[in-house]
Amino acid sequence: AKEFGVSAKEFGVSAKEFGASAKEFGVSAKKFGVPAKEFRGSIPKSV
Q1: What secondary structure, in 3-state letters, does the chain show?
Q2: pTM value?
Q3: How does pLDDT run across 4-15, given as a tens digit for each residue?
Q4: Hey, CA dihedral for 44, 45, 46, 47, is it positive or negative?
């Protein structure tokens, strides 16, 4: 996480620009809520 610190700051502006888009995808995220949980359980903990 520390290694990506600089990159995170560089993407700070972009993150704000995508803020509106993130909200638009908020509803879709909720619709896929159950599948997301099911998929999350299939992810190896080693990742």
Answers
A1: CCCCHHHHHHCHHHHHHCHHHHHHHHHHHHHCHHHHHHHHHCCCCCC
A2: 0.17
A3: 666 666 666 565
A4: positive
